[in-house]
Amino acid sequence: MYGARFMTMIFILLKNTCKQLLVAVLILLFSLSNISAIFFGYLFSNQENLNKTPVAHAAGVKTKTIEFFVGQNQTSGIGVPAGTNWNSVFMVDLPDAITSPTMIKSAWIDYTFQSALTGPPGIVTLGLTPSGFSETVFNSASYQSSGENYTIQVQPDFTAAMQAAMQGPGTKSITFRAFVAGVPRKMENAKMFITYDYDDTAPTQISTIKYRIGQSPGNIAVGGTGITFTSPTMTVTENSPVVVSAWSEIRGQVPATGATDNVFAVNYDADVSSAYYLDNVGGAESQAMYILHPKNSIALNATHTLKIAATAGYQMNLVSAEQVITYKFNYTNSTTLMRTAEMMLGFDGNKASATPLNVTDTINIPEDTPSFKNIYLRGTAHATANSTFGLSAQLGGSIPPPTANFSYTSGGEIMNNFWILSNDINNLGSLVQGDNQLSASFTGTMSSRSAHLIATYSFAKSSLTQSASAAFWTEQQTSYGTSGTPAVTIDIAGAPDAGSLRSFTHANSVHGVTQDRAANISVSPTAPYTHNWDSTGEYQWIVFFNKNSNNEITGNGTYTVNLGSTGSNVIAAVEQISWRYGPIIPSLTSYANSTEAGLNYVVSCTGCGARIGGGAGFRQTIVITGTDFGIDPGVANRSTATNNIKIGTHQIANANVTAWNSVSITIVTDSSVAGDTDTDWGTEFGGVGALTVTAGGQTSTGVNFYIFPQITSITQPVGFPADSAREFDSLDTDGVITLNGTRFGSSQGSGSVAIVGQTSVIDSWTNTAIQSEVSPAIADTTNTGSMVMVQGTGTSNKTHTYGNTFRILPRITGFTPSSASEGGGVTVNGNHFCQGVSCPVSFNANNKVIFTNVVDATVFTSWNATAIVTQVPVGAISGDVTIISNSFISNPFLFSVLSNTPNLPTGLEQWKDALLTKIISVGGTSSSTPIYLSMVVENTGIFGGTLYPQIEYKPIGTAFSCTTATPCVEAVEGNGAGAAPGPIDCGISANNCAITISPADTTYHWQARIRYNKLGVDYFGPWVSFDVNLETETDFKIDTTPPTISSISSGTPGSNSATITWDTSVESSTSRIEYNTSGIFVGGYDCAATNECTTINLILLTSHSVALPNLDSGTTYYYRVRSKDVAGNESISGNNIFTTSSVTQPAKTTQASLFGEPSVITSATTTYFTVLAPETGPTIKSAYIEVMGVVSGGGTIELQANNLGSKTFTIPAGSLTNFKLLYKIADGSFSPSEDILNLNDTLPCTNANPVDPGIQCNKLTIIPSSSSVYITSARFIMTYGFTP
Amino acid sequence: MNVSVNTSSKDEMNKKKFKWNIPATVFAVLFIACTAYVINRYPNLAQKIIVYVGHDKIISENILIPNTRVIGVYDARVPHPGVHEVPLVENNGEHIVVPNAVLTLKGSYDFVTSEAHLWSKDAKLIFIRSLGAVTLEGKSSTWQLAFGSALKKRGYEIIVQGDTIISQKEVESDANGFNLPDNWYDSPDALVSLASLPQFKNATVSGINFYYNTDGKRWGYVMATSHGGTSMPVK
């Protein structure tokens, strides 16, 4: 309808430019086009929605029925001639209709006329012509007529016509045309019912309400003053009501007792009365008086009088009047609303029964603060004779006896279709909100009766629950006497409360046979209910109601209505529905996370929800779908108490609800939007049923919605590339990162962080920050991966995976060896060394090892994820080493670059022999060349290469020429000692690295150093002098010349001694004499292989003197002198001779008893003894021991003195044998010695008794072979000479 | 900067402040002009000069323009430390003002894109890097933008200062540029995201880069903060 309004505006605009024709065509096209209507309707409806204030109850589309007055024919006389049109123009305005081609659900005309007696049966033709449309025509079937007058009501369906006409807003002018062929008619009138869907929040709305004006208690005489009803106050509580259509419906019965037409005068208040004519030519049954007396200008909220008088004809019976008011009002500014509820209480189909119709029903008044303006009862029935009727009701279960009677006294004429509007109510004014039990009683003799409650009341607009009613056209039959099962489609917008539907069927027909008849009516599946009534055979207008007591209509749908009545004229039926609109509960069926589809809702999901917070870059959009969300409450009202979206108890702020319509709401989760800070979200994390939508104050059932954590950023160590860190090492912070984000949980609890697949150690955990350590367990070959965190305490342990963007940078953990020198092989150890697709196979700008940040390694040996094998480049110094892999830089790691300069040599030695066994002492002399110099070579910590010993020697006093760490021609080098680092001792001959030199005889000093050659490069160590001697000090001397012996003299030998003298005047030397009496010498160098030498006197002398004692007197001795210089050069003189002087020496023999043992000797027995020879120079000539004893059975006896060899004696076997054994100790000249014989117990005294050492220094041991040896005695006998 | 308030008493206060802000502002403008002259005349005199005018802390910078020869994708992955640390959350209403900071990061891209396309029609962004201080509005006085071209197999560096391109040249590049995400959020949003977290309440920011993460094949911001480089994805 707004589309049409828009076109009208365009029309006005263009009209001024004289283009009316074109515009008219356009309007016509648009008017005919539903599409244009939809388009512009949508456009304008949206615009209108923006200006709407949300209602307290759920906004939505509802259904109602509005009645419009069409017309009342006042033609007098014979009425409207047969075949003549009666036209009536009326206005229809549906200001609150929704814009939809099918918004009109049902529309029909109640056309009623009295068929005059003067014509044959006719055909009813009705037309409806909305302005701008063609006429829609209804042709009824002919009806039976016997020439009697009677009232006919026809209800043609004009739904389609109204659907076409009512598109677009505004009041529509509609022309109604009635044409009846073959019979004139009187008292014709029409009203229109329109059932349509409306927007119950439309700013202007329309309503139809009813008031009871009055009911006559009995007959009203003709020609009198008639009856004047005073209405109750016709209250309308809405804001700015404007009456669109108002009229009084006047019903009564006129006995057909004569042939005079009835004339009725009707007027409101002081209005001029209107005259209405009813043909009455007499008959057995009364005529129905049915007048629609219009009063569009009726004042509201006031009482009125309605005067009804029969000015001609016959009396009126049971005259009643109801006021119908259809009015528009300002809904927006209204605080209360009005409605008239028409509820059927009960019915029966009895024929001419006097049994009261007693019913009890429950009436529900759902609205808040209802205020009842008018309550009355409506009873309908048919009567066969004069009767008195009562109709009463009251709250409670007790049937109220009627207190007021309505009498019909017309001479016994049958009265069909009479109505009674009773106000005989006890306490119905006390109806309350909610269920009210109500009892009613309809008394009198009548048939096919029904009773209704009509209540007009106001209520609070804010009521969440409201009742409603509508009527749906069922059928207008077109054939006489037919039965049918027409379908009626019930189509109520919105969602009626379950079980709240009530319905009843309202049907009418004309029955015209001369016998009692019945009609069937019901809604399937209930079996048709038979309504019976009495008839005199005259045609009469029959109206009957059928309460669908079994709740046959349960909701929207198409139902079958059973209509059956033999002998009836056209029958029509309308279904009247009432129900309750409960608060519209929004239904949230699903949601989709359009930012992260993985969090979409599925039934009972636990992985559904959204992430919130973090700013514009992390905003997630959730589209919530469902029904009954109502119209958009407006951008400023999407977060109110009555319209909101909540997650748990958190209410989404206005700014975050970006779209709202009845089936879809869109929210964004970003908490940084002003007015919805992160704090506002609290610590909620959603849960089961957490997401709800509240619309119009009604809250949906929640669906699962979880707040997931969201990592919004990562803080990595200072200076690191974005999205990177190293494996954790406690020595630094390179492996510590902070996850920033939202909804991590207030503490770790069961939360966790896994980086590149490995769980991290957590240092700290808050709701927005987690400091974690990158696990060292990450595979060294895996460099990139995701970061997965699981919510901690207070959460549902939801996860967030932070992309596959995190990189583990290379980390150096050490070197093998831990230090190395230039050129030295080194393995860089660590992890994640291969940052590219594969490990590098050579060094380049993006893949290299850098020493001390400036020198790149050049030798590429191998590279894998944990080790890079290379060499220390030339120029490298100790400092940090880094690697670059695929442009990613490792941590710096300190590396010591060792110097290749070899150590100082140590262990310098000088040797005389090649086997390096004869050391030349410091300053020592070698008597031969070559000599050998050695040292220990070493290059600590350096591996590979070769160590060489070098020396330089110079005569003392001559300075070394090699002083710098450079090659030196004076240096003498030995063989390569071996590979570094050493140490290698060249003083070990097997190492074959001692330096051989053959210097001339003189004295020398020397220095040494180490040459280290690695990969062809020489590194020289510093020089160090031997023994750190000064160059003036002798390190070694070379002397290959033996001393010269001269002046050999034996002087004057004594009788027992001689002294030999000689000179070695050139050089000092040792002194030694080799002598014997044979003159044949066999002693080699240094008296080797002889015992004929005196002990060497090592004192180096140039004048030598050696005494020879204990010589034999008178004996010629031969001798040669020997002298060795310091170098060991030995000179041996030739043979010399001297003879000792001859002297007579005394001699004596001495003996001593050694043994006096009388007993048996059974084992080795030792005796100790002293040998005394106190004289000067004793010379033993003979010494022996004599042992005497007895032995039985022979045997052996072994004797041993001192350390001389033992001697075993064998004694022949015999019973007893005396023996005497001589054991020789010495024979000839003999010099006493400890081993042979100790004279005078001189020290050492090795043969003494251990028990008494040093007392007796000789011993004799006797070892018998049997136990039968008796030693009788033993004695020592010695003969010796001496010097007197 | 005056903080918006709702109460009438604060309105009165603001009116009084306004009276004083006029001469203060005139003084500030003159001071800044003189400062700018000094900086231009003696470029080595200082890297920055800070002037306080009311709650505004006005920073004049002397930006060192890099002599770029090679553009590398990796370069912008490491946040530029910047020369001035700006509190992420205003303290006592103190507001950092950099007079020449008129473009946001994205604004700088929009500003120079046509120039890049003039250089090569297939030019694509490699990175954007702030060279000066970054205000809470996500603006910097100087932006360095690097583009790449598959056709030229070269890079193109544009440096924009204020609203003027002060340098543009073709250089070597290890990348041809990358497609940008749709509706990528700008530098102010990135800063707001950090500032909304309590752990950054007392943090400062000194630089911001828009970089391409070749591992995850996505763009991101990385900001030099007092807590360390903080990276943030741009989807």
Model description:
The complex is a heterodimer of chains A (1284) and B (235). With 1284 residues, chain A is mostly beta strands. Chain A has five helices and 94 strands. In chain A, the strands form 21 sheets. In chain A, strands 67, 69, 70, 71, 74, 75, 76 and 77 form an eight-stranded mixed β-sheet that branches. In chain A, strands 36, 38, 39, 42, 43 and 44 form a six-stranded mixed β-sheet that branches. In chain A, strand 59 and strand 60 form a beta hairpin. In chain A, helix 1 crosses helix 3. The longest helix of chain A has 17 residues. The N terminus of chain A is likely disordered. By secondary structure, chain B is α+β, with helices and mostly antiparallel strands. Chain B contains three helices and 14 strands. In chain B, strands 3, 4, 7, 9, 10, 11, 12, 13 and 14 form a nine-stranded mixed β-sheet that branches. In chain B, strands 1-2-5 form a three-stranded mixed β-sheet, covered by helices on one side. The longest helix of chain B has 34 residues. The radius of gyration of chain B is 19 Å and the shape is globular. The two termini of chain B are 34 Å apart. The N terminus of chain B is likely disordered. At the A-B interface, strand 45 and strand 47 of A face helix 3, strand 12, strand 13 and strand 14 of B. Strand 45 of chain A pairs antiparallel with strand 14 of chain B, so a sheet runs across the interface.
Taking Cα atoms only, what radius of gyration of chain B do you get, to the nearest Å? 19 Å
Number of helices of chain A: 5
Shape of chain B: globular
Helix content class of chain A: under 10%
Global morphology of chain A: rod-shaped
Helix content of chain B: 10-25%
Q: Which structural category fits the helices and strands of chain B? A: alpha+beta
- The first-to-last residue Cα distance of chain B is 34 Å
Return the average pLDDT of chain A rounded to an integer. Answer: 86
Helix count, DSSP H or I runs of 4 or more residues of chain B: 3
